[in-house]
Design goal:
heterodimer; A: five-stranded antiparallel beta sheet; B: four-stranded antiparallel beta sheet
Chain lengths: 107, 118
């Protein structure tokens, strides 16, 4: 099956800093999502982005499907951004999740 | 609009007991997914349904696990008998999937059920 790798595995930021999270996948896909799992365990949809670029406030994402990677940008980070960020992708209806990036934003 | 609803939110049971987890997908969605999250294995797909029909159950760990979707607004995941290694958070997700050449399938997750088997 498809392999999904995320980097970095852990990230500590000072409030106000910017960061880039990366997701590499091993096969062509028609389905890619970024999620934020907050400290209470909820999986929050950030982006549905099988290709192209999208922006939502301080967050933006880019997927280059031909090169099999996606990037999530977080600008002006806030403590509420803390949690785990997952990339999930695949073909058809199935999603395979990466192992996530654990982000901690400190004051 | 209500999102995906799961019940119970927490379940503590003893080894050997039957456990039933419930899910109500978002109204109008035609696909439903059951996932399990553990520290060791991360988030993994167990089974998914399309138009109430099971399409892929290759992620179901063993025969002790079964899932049903009797109608478009309800699904269950049953574990019988339960074992301590089944302890995990179980998520249900739903999507409105359509298209072939231009495919759309954004999945939305419920709050999860935290299962502890003693």
């Amino acid at each position: 099956g498809i392999q999904v790798e995320q980097s970095p595995p852990d990230l500590i930021l000072q409030e106000g800093a910017n960061s880039t999270l990366r997701c590499n996948f091993s096969d062509s896909v028609n389905n890619l999502q970024w999620f934020h799992q907050n400290p209470w365990g909820q999986l929050i949809n950030l982006f549905y982005i099988p290709s192209g670029t999208k922006q939502n406030g301080r967050l933006s994402a880019t997927t280059v499907a031909t090169e099999r990677y996606s990037l999530l940008y977080i600008s002006s980070s806030q403590t509420t951004d803390s949690g785990v960020y997952f990339c999930a992708t695949g073909g058809g209806n199935k999603l395979t999740f990466g192992t996530g990036t654990q982000l901690k934003v400190e004051l | 609009d209500a999102g995906v609803i799961q019940s119970p939110r927490h379940e503590v049971t003893e080894m050997g007991q039957e456990v039933t987890l419930r899910c109500k997908p978002i109204s109008g969605h035609n696909s439903l997914f059951w996932y399990r999250q553990t520290m060791m294995r991360g988030l993994e797909l167990l089974i998914y349904f399309n138009n109430n029909v099971p399409i892929d159950d290759s992620g179901m760990p063993e025969d002790r696990f079964s899932a049903k979707m009797p109608n478009a607004s309800f699904s269950t995941l049953k574990i019988q008998p339960s074992e301590p290694r089944d302890s995990a958070v179980y998520f249900c997700a739903s999507s409105l999937s359509f298209g072939t050449t231009s495919f759309y399938n954004e999945q939305f997750f419920g709050p999860g059920t935290r299962l502890t088997v003693l």
